[in-house]
């Protein structure tokens, strides 16, 4: 029986790189704040409606991203799965609570602007993460 010699090359470990979460969500907050401040001279209600809608998008997504990237690697498969579900549940509940609180406690409000800002920031989030994924593959 021949003995198979082990390969001399080192084993490689594949990890999913963590996106720069703080940079991504800080940029989104800054952009929402900037556009809101620029709208104040035109319409104050529209300005704070835009700010609220943008923050309703940013806050739950930042929580989700933080939860998802707490653990990495196959050794933590169970923890990764749990943190993913915890993050998704928290994101969903937080979004519902923020929308409900906005509609109950904030009057007057441009509802269309709230939803438009929410959708815009959601799309911005997807574009930033897609761009990060493409740039990450090049490196």
TrEMBL record:
Q: Does the keyword Nucleotide-binding apply?
A: no
Where exactly are the transmembrane stretches of this chain? 21-40, 46-69, 89-106, 112-134
Instruction: Please provide the record's keywords in A-Z order.
Output: Cell membrane, Membrane, Transmembrane, Transmembrane helix
Q: Where in the cell is it found?
A: Cell membrane
Q: Provide the Gene Ontology terms for cellular component.
A: plasma membrane
Any single Pfam family the record assigns to this protein? ATP-synt_I
Keyword match Nuclease: no
Residues folding into a coiled coil are none
The record describes its membrane topology as: Multi-pass membrane protein
Primary location group = membrane
The organism that produces this protein has a lineage beginning with:
Bacteria, Pseudomonadati, Pseudomonadota, Gammaproteobacteria, Cellvibrionales
| InterPro entries found in the cross-reference section | ATP_synth_I (IPR005598)
UniProt-recorded name of the protein:
F0F1 ATP synthase subunit I
**Superkingdom of source:** Bacteria
Native species: Zhongshania aliphaticivorans
């Amino acid at each position: 029986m021949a003995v198979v010699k082990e390969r001399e090359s080192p084993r490689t470990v594949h990890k999913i790189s963590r996106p720069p979460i703080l940079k991504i969500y800080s940029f989104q907050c800054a952009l929402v704040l900037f556009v809101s401040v620029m709208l104040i001279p035109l319409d104050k209600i529209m300005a704070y409606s835009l700010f609220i809608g943008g923050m309703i998008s940013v806050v739950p997504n930042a929580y989700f991203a933080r939860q998802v990237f707490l653990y990495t690697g196959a050794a933590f498969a169970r923890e990764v799965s749990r943190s993913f579900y915890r993050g998704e549940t928290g994101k969903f509940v937080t979004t519902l609570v923020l929308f409900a609180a906005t509609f109950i406690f904030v009057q007057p409000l441009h509802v269309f602007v709230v939803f438009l800002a929410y959708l815009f920031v959601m799309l911005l989030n997807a574009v930033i993460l897609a761009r990060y994924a493409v740039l990450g593959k090049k490196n």
